[in-house]
Amino acid sequence: MTAPAPSVVFLGVRHHSPACARLVARTIDELRPAYVLVEGPADMNDRLDELLLGHELPVAVFSHYRDAERTATSWTPLCDYSPEWVALTHGRACGAEVRFIDLPAWHPAFAERTNRYADAEARYEEATRRLSRKFSVDSVDALWDRLFEVEDDAGLAERLDTYFRLVRGDTRAGGGDRDREAYMAAWVRAAMARAGSRPVLVVTGGFHQPALRALADDEQHRDRTAADGTATGGTATGGGSGKGPAGRETAGKGSTGNGSAGGSEWPDVPVPAEEALAGSFLVPYSFRQLDAFAGYQSGMPSPGYYQQVWEEGPKSAAHTLLRAVAERLRARSYPVSTADLIAARTLTEGLGALRGHPVPARIDVLDGLAGALIKDDLDQPLPWTRRGTIGEGTHPAVVEMVSVCGGDRAGRLHPATPAPPLVHDVAAQLARWKLDSDSTATLDLSSPADLDRSRVLHRLRVLGIPGRVRVLGPEHGADPVFTERWEPRPAPGRDAALVEAGAHGAGLAEAAATVLTDRMRSADGHAQTLAGALFDAVLCGVTELTEPLLELLAGRVRAVREPGPLGEVLGTALGLWRHDRVYGVARSALLASVVDGAVTRILWLLEGSRGPSGVDFARLGAVVAVRDALLHAAPLLSVPRTVAAAVAHRIAQDREAPVDLRGAAFGLHRVLAALPDEDEAESRGDADTGKGAETAAEEGPSPQDGAAAVQAAAGIATLGDWLAGLFAVAREDVTTGASEGRSETSLIDVLDVMVDEMSEPDFLVALPALRQAFGFFPPRERERIAQRLLERRGVRGSARSLLRTGAHPALIARARSLEETVTRLLDHHGLRAAR
Amino acid sequence: MTTDTGSTVRGPGRKAPRARKDSSQRQEQLQRPPAEVRYAQELAALRSGDGDHRPPGWELSLRAARRFIIGDEDAGISRKFVGNPSLVDRALVTLATNRGLMLVGEPGTAKSLLSELIAAAVSGVSTLTVQGGAATTEDQIKYGWNYALLVSEGPSPRSLVPAPMLRGMAEGRLVRFEEITRCPLEVQDSLLSLLSERVVAIPELSGPDGMVFAQQGFNVIATANTRDRGVNEMSAALKRRFNFETVFPIPDADTELALVEAEVVTLLERSGVTAPPDRDVLEVLVGTFRELRAGTADSGSATDRTSAVMSTAEAVAVAHAVGVRGWFLRGEPGSAADVVACLAGTAAKDSPEDLARLRRHLEQQAGRHRGPHWKALYDARHLLAD
Fold this sequence. Notes:
The complex is a heterodimer of chains A (835) and B (386). Chain A has 835 residues and is α/β, with parallel strands linked by helices. Helix content of chain A is 54%, strand content 8%. Chain A has a four-stranded parallel beta sheet with strand order 1-6-2-5, with helices on both faces. In chain A, α1 packs parallel to α3, α1 (18-31) packs antiparallel against α10 and α28 packs across α30 (760-774). The longest helix of chain A is centred in the middle third of the chain and has 29 residues, at 303-331. Chain A is elongated and about 130 Å long. Mean pLDDT of chain A is 77; it is low at 224-262 and 679-701. Chain B is 46% helix and 10% strand. Chain B is built from 19 helices and nine strands. Chain B has helices at 15-21, 23-26, 35-38, 40-48, 62-70, 85-96, 111-123, 138-141, 147-153, 164-171, 185-189, 191-196, 236-239, 253-270, 279-294, 312-330, 336-348, 352-364, 372-379; strands at 100-105, 129-131, 143-145, 160-162, 174-178, 199-201, 211-213, 219-225, 242-246. Chain B has a five-stranded parallel beta sheet with strand order 2-5-8-1-9. In chain B, strands 3-4 form a two-stranded antiparallel ribbon. Chain B has a two-stranded antiparallel sheet with strand order 6-7. The longest helix of chain B has 19 residues, at 312-330. The chains are: A alpha/beta (835), B alpha/beta (386). Chains A and B meet through α11, α12, α19, α21 and α23 of A and α5, α6, β9 and α18 of B.
């Protein structure tokens, strides 16, 4: 006997599409399905009630996983207009049984992804590019709006079907996607078996829909053959319903334990391995996190706008957007005249008509506003003409427009929602380290237990959990303070802050790492922010970082544009990498990657430095930091010494470069050339092809070079600056030469001659800078230089007395000037002989 | 000149109508015929199949004009502009409103080509053009006089020599104003009343001839490059009458590479070089140009932009020189070393700073790329002339 076949309707949707959400609701109303199957983590099925407590959306299902090999975190964000959310709520309301049918987020099928609903289009770029070209639009977002969001809902399902078939084409899904599709198909089959003649609705991402339909068809076909039934054809949207005993499927072919042979049993939900720590829970989410312009891997632009579309329709959303942007820009004192608004509105309507939109779409409004309001040339293309985040240098008005589109809504969980594990973890850690009382904590960082306590408190600070404030402690990596004092503070909203922070991770360390990663990511070109985040990472003990994070960090270092601040970062990182005993970060990979990135970047920046004369101590500091890195951490660096030496050589020779930097580069070259070249063999291969590197490697500068360089590089006015640069980087080199009394002309000798030959006014001009330059020497070394000068003149005497004057310099100067006056008077009166 | 003389064109030496009238006979002799002649067939096809509404005074509907510019393979319309389609949308819609269109961008980003194509599509004529420059005067924008006639007859419509703006207004056509920011400010501002009142008064003439009103279809496309004198110096009053569109270099590396390759092949053939360019060498060249232009290295680090223009057109010129060099010096396609040798002349022009930038780029960035041709480029860095 044959049971009447269930009709299965496969709805392929785009995640976060209001049009698709409407379609889901309508389909549920029409179909009254017995089962609504939704792409979502199947391990949440027992806890669907938790989702329906009455949260303010957006919220997300946050999943975490940790075992010996890998850790993974992932989000499944849901907002009011998510088709999945509508399927869930509306399906429930209509009495259907709702199930999530996708693999849990921790499953290896999601290995590379942190957002379940990230746009799959990204993975089928070629197809979407072809389509965009065909429809003459800039990006897939514009294409989507045009085809679905602003179009009339009539025929939407058919259009979606066609679209997804086209986009997916014959492309074979990747391994992860195949596993997921096989698993989801198993759920579909089970639902069909249980539904009897009642309809089943399957709501999944459009990409999976053709595959799911094919998989289910396959099964049905097999069933039909087995039962010798007759096909009755499918409905327009349903992938076909067939006659056949629904219970006769062969065992599923999914890689994960799925349906039992009976067919009507739900597939097993994969359970994480015994030793692994995994879980899913609800966290509040925000539009900012959803926005593709602001974040990454979320793939959905302008959630604020689409919320409006969902609530009031595209027409009203366009008006609201126009008004909101005008208000925002005016609030920011950006001129927006009434005439501009008329022009923007005209452009918007015109663009909509030209592009064949029945009502203006998002890009029509944005294009209209940009066209009418911006009266400058842009440095960056309009962000909505492509996918991805906003680039640096985007016009401020454009940034505001995009931010208005993004909206600022933040979700809130119902109070009865079970707290995320972070809350428990924090409570446990505070209790364990006896930090849960309301007393001041004084911590000695050199004791391991106190260091652990300090880390807990720092992690809480980084997460923005109020409660305690550090009033004393090291300010930066080179700060020799080893005591911290943390004082309690009133903490209103602490619990809420903890729940919110739960979105960043399941454990305290993990959550702090996520936040710090975000901070480093946003430190675009700002060395200070980067240094702050880096030191916080050290304080929090979050230094075991993943490969992508290290790359990110190196990338951020590469974006810094000032050598000075980056030099400080490098100096601190290098110091910690070499010597740190307190925080336990010596030789850490995190610091190593910063050191390497910073050296490369500083060398690049230095060679391009231009500017007025004078001594830039920050920049000289950067050269010193590079020198130290090259001397003490060479194995970390991707820049071989020979290349660094070649760079230094070029700067020293460059007449356009600032004089102090030329001196410093000369010094750096000297230091590097004096080194025993342990990687000679390796670097030769690199050097023999380049002229620059060759000169650097072969002609280790002798003091004569130094003499020539001083004379060539520095006029009297700039001598002091040049020397300051040199002394900052290579003063040991200079004094060693002096004290050993080498036979050949030392740099000191050359200087002595030069100073001797200066006329009185010249000397006065050069004096301040010379004083500054010799300020780099400690007194003992200055004494050695003085000794050398005395020897040159064949004078015996105390070098020390030369460095100390008996009287105040002002008095001596007055005496000198008096003497000069007397001499002049004598000359004037013809009493020259009396001199 | 009166307001109703749509088609009468006076004044000697006007290229446009002549080029149109006898284009069939003369086309082969022109070095570069205007767009409306080059694409006469496409325009005719679009015009005949154009079922959409046309803005008053336009020869094509907005949609047909857009298809003309960004191409429509199915209808046999070639793709002429490779930038973002939405830019073309905005430009066309702007021109259908009462604001002028200002195309700004780096030199060599095909602004003039775009304005020529738009004018050809919208008005059927792309030659009503004012070329801006330091010596541009109001005469060249609005009108001047035929002095012989002026002396013998006094001011009359006959002795008036209309300049492109006046003709565009009277005929209801688009007028192109190239390099508007290179004009003195006071000359730029002569456009003010013309754009807002849409009328030019000719005080020398009396009666109806003394006012020329703009016909439907008249509007202005101005271009300005961001290097010479940016748009910042433009008066706010004039800015207000334009919608600004920034034209960017070709965003997609592959598209740019394909374009450069196609152009270079043609150029090399014309120069008698039979060896086609090496695609890998072109890739290195275009890659270097893109890095120097964007001020971002492949690794993502922020680098220097050169002050010289690293446009696609320049890339084509360098690739051409590379090919010629390789062929006539050694009888083979140009190599990465030739790229270095030819870069100095284009990328650095006569600026020592740019030469230093280029050297620094080759020394510190080029070596970071993988691939044999990048390696060859890096190894040849000393060929960069001093």
